[in-house]
Write a structure and sequence with these properties.
The complex is a heterodimer of chains A (239) and B (331). Chain A is α/β, with parallel strands linked by helices and 239 residues long. Chain A is built from 10 helices and 10 strands. Chain B has one domain: ABC transporter involved in vitamin B12 uptake, BtuC. Chain B is built from 14 helices and 4 strands. The longest helix of chain B is centred in the first third of the chain and has 32 residues. The chains are: A alpha/beta (239), B mainly alpha (331).
Chain lengths: 239, 331
């Protein structure tokens, strides 16, 4: 299995708190790979550490055979990793177009690619000249994802994209992610197991800053007892 | 308060506040010639304060830095411009408008360049080590301000320094029984030109887009692949250069300057930044014009209230809009 991203015994502190206690994780190239875990387990910290937004105190993060552990965030981004944070990171005072233009390396859109992105998320074209603060929660999430894919990226880190979204929007999101995953690897942090199950090819479960399970999504989806044990909650409730 | 906002929005929103203030003053003053003179003086003063405040607002908004040393650049700008004008004495007082203009250009240019270079040094040496620590920012920038004042005292002395005004900007333009100082018209025009350039740069260029995005969410700008620290340096240099330019213009307006020129102006500058809204150039312009107009109208109508008027304006606006008139949108 060819891993596009490898985390090896990564420890991260936030202030005086030791949050990641030696995360080791391989993300295979291609498809959607899911990082599951309860609140406070360390999912977001893992993504932020990969992006260099928080520094790993120990361990190594290797992306396409390059050690990016101590790289600055902008360098990590230029290396081909896009990040969609939990709060979406939308610039509310900028228009939809400006938000997306900012994510291009030169400020110029590749028109063919732009049309593909707009086809995935037609609302973006509709609100192209509107300030982003006026968008709904679902539209903001679409903008955040559009921004992440407006240029070719090798890996996209997405943090809980379904949080607070209506079921209809989540269904549209599933279709969009399937399309995106045809050319880009996605590492998806989720608590919504239904969403994660419908997309993920592999899954890792994190708890208390450690990976406590890794394997195929199909196996986890088929084993309700394992789900309950790993995630400490009745996943049936999410289904 | 919501009703007032909704009512104002129907007629142009907060942008109409200076117009409303001017109309109210027209009724209270009663003499059109005095009103025109005071209005032009207020607009000129507002534009000079805008020059000083706009940079501070961007530095606040983008970098989250409380720079109490900003006034040092106002003072340095004033003294550098005064020295250049004094050195070019014959150009300044001579009859040639071209030489007058060259002297003014050299003085304002030298002050602005000094502000930019000083801003670079200040950001790298003073501010960079205390990012994300507001208490230390206040302490260290206040300390730097004291050092800057002592430097000015050491170089230029404590006695007031006369600032020669280029001959082509002396005198007034008289229309009917209205007399308007030429220098005030020039100060207003320069401020307006700087605002238009800044507006263009922020809204039509890539670096402007990055600055506007950075004011909202620095972390996301970095996650998109841009070095925010480089943007910080550029904005700090530009903000300091604008403060120095404002100081140079204010020196010419006052005619006599002391090392306290910067700190004296900082009260008004902070009021402008706060009522305009942090990180917003349009807010700074609006706030500066309101402050300039109010200062002049109240000085005429009720001189004893002159000092308090802008404080009262700030209190009233913050009660109405706690984030200022036109704050930068966050998220």
């Amino acid at each position: 299995m060819n891993a596009i991203l490898r985390l090896d015994d990564v420890h991260t502190d936030i202030g005086q708190y030791h949050v990641l206690h030696g995360i080791s994780l391989d993300v295979p190239e291609g498809g959607v790979h899911v990082l599951l875990g309860r609140n406070g387990a360390g999912k977001t910290t893992t993504l932020r550490t990969i992006m260099g937004l928080w520094r790993a105190r120990r361990g190594a993060i290797v992306f396409r055979h390059h050690d990016i552990t101590q790289m600055r965030t902008p360098d990590v981004a230029r290396f081909g990793i896009a990040y969609v944070p939990e709060n979406m990171g939308i610039f509310g005072g900028l228009t939809v177009e400006e938000n997306m233009r900012l994510a291009t390396a030169t400020g110029v859109f590749d028109q063919a690619r732009l049309q593909r992105v707009l086809a995935l998320f037609p609302a973006m074209e509709k609100f192209w000249t509107k300030q982003a603060f006026a968008l709904s929660g679902g539209q903001k999430q679409m903008l955040a994802i559009s921004r992440a894919i407006i240029e070719r990226r090798d890996l996209i880190l997405i943090d809980e994209p379904t949080k607070g979204l209506a079921p209809a929007i989540i269904r549209a999101m599933i279709d969009a992610f399937r399309e995106i995953a045809r050319e880009t690897t996605i590492l998806l942090v989720e608590q919504n197991f239904l969403f994660a199950r419908s997309l993920g090819s592999s899954v890792a479960v994190i708890d208390d800053g450690r990976i406590i399970h890794r394997g195929g999504m199909a196996e986890l989806a088929a084993d309700e007892a394992l789900q309950t044990r790993l995630l400490s909650l009745s996943l049936a409730a999410h289904q | 308060m919501t009703n007032i906002s909704a009512f104002l929005a129907r007629f142009g929103g907060v942008n109409l506040l200076p117009v409303a203030l001017a109309l109210l003053a027209f009724v209270l003053i009663g003499q059109p010639s005095s009103w025109v003179t005071l209005t032009v003086a207020g607009l000129a003063m507002g534009m000079m304060i805008f020059l000083m405040a706009s940079g501070l607002s961007l530095i606040f908004g983008l970098m989250d830095v409380l720079n109490f040393g900003h006034s040092a650049f106002v003072s340095f700008g004033a003294f550098v411009a005064a020295s250049v004008l004094a050195a070019l004495g014959s150009w300044v007082t001579g009859g040639s408008a071209a030489l007058n203009a060259l002297a003014l250009l050299a003085a304002v240019g030298a002050a602005t360049a000094f502000g930019a270079v000083g801003g670079w040094f200040f950001e790298r040496v003073i501010v960079k080590p205390v990012y994300k620590d507001h208490l230390r920012q206040i302490l260290i920038t206040m300390g730097a301000l004291i050092v800057a004042e002592q430097l000015i005292l050491a170089v230029w002395g404590g006695a007031p320094v006369a600032v020669p005004r280029p001959a082509f900007l002396t005198g007034s333009i008289v229309v009917g029984d209205v007399a308007v100082e030429t220098y005030r018209i020039f100060a207003f025009a320069l401020g307006l030109a700087v605002y238009l350039v800044m507006h263009y740069a922020l809204n039509r260029t890539r670096i402007g887009l990055l600055i506007r995005a950075g004011v909202e969410n620095r972390e996301m700008v970095e996650a998109l692949g841009f070095r925010i620290d480089r943007l910080f340096i550029a904005v700090f240099m530009a903000g300091s250069a604008l403060a120095a330019m404002g100081g140079a213009m204010w020196a010419g307006y006052q005619g006599l300057i002391t090392p306290a020129i910067g700190p004296e102006m900082m009260i008004l500058v902070f009021i402008v930044v706060i009522i305009g809204g942090l990180g917003s150039i349009q807010g700074s312009l609006l706030g500066a014009i309101l402050v300039g107009l109010l200062a002049n109208y109240v000085a005429f109508l009720a001189p004893k209230l002159s000092l308090a008027s802008n404080m009262l304006l700030m209190m009233a606006i913050l009660l109405w809009r706690p984030y200022g008139l036109r704050p930068a949108i966050k998220g």
